[in-house]
Design brief:
With 282 residues, the protein is α/β, with parallel strands linked by helices. It has helices at residues 22-30, 51-70, 84-91, 96-115, 134-154, 167-180, 211-220, 245-255, 261-276; strands at 9-13, 35-39, 74-78, 121-126, 157-161, 187-192, 204-208, 225-227. The relative contact order is 0.16. Bound molecules: zinc ion.
Amino acid sequence: MPGPRFPILDNHFHLDPRGRGAEAVKEFLRAGGTHLTLVHKPYRDLPPGSLERTRLAFERTMQLADVARAAGAVVHVALAPHPAELTEMLKAGLALDEAARIYEQGLELAAGHARAGRCIALGEVGRPHYPVEAEVWERANALLQRALELCRDARVAAILHTESATPDVFADLAARARAAGLGLDQAVKHYSPPIVGPENHGLFPSIIASADSAEVAARQGTRFLLETDYVDEPERPGAVLGPKTVPRRTLDLLAKGLLTEEQCWQVHSANPKRVYGIDVAL
Ligand SMILES: [Zn+2]
């Protein structure tokens, strides 16, 4: 089979030291993938609770990026303490003020990496996707605002992890990005439903590459990115889409005539250039 004539980016991919690692990346490459946005995730043996642990966890993500590069992918990194870490710290017994302080230090550390060119986005940032007490919700939103401001200052994108994105949620997030002075093209909605038109209020949707979502998205236009949210965790083999999904889905959309080759270039090269300022070429 001849390889694809355009680059293919999976915009939300995780690696775990206990997972398939380079094997998963090779599977992505064999299916026609070329570029990965490798997003930081919490590691089980480094539970949140101090800036030092966040520092070590970020180092690990950057090492895993090198593993993926050695396997043959072009890799860009996103770093941030995951929004769930705030409530993880509360569960572990930290007071809200202390947990929020450690979380904010983690954001600042990630912003430093961004300024040094070691990551192209702060991500995942946002707020819990599950119900929390009003006081925690308010604090999570304040930290989200801080994250958006740090993105503006560091001139990088924000990869947003939130509750399910309805048009109302998109409107709320767009207002927060605007208040922070962050361009809406730099406010990427991770795990987005296929809402490509004005109902996403200008956020940049990174759409989950299931067959249904990708087709619905492609019928609406090309202002979107595609992602799997592959987690690389042995305990959750079927939790999300596998490493092959974005290349397979893209080639499938091309075969079905839902995307032209030029539109594939738009989604996988021009869009990431616009969002992150990166060059995505073959
Ligand atoms: Zn994720």
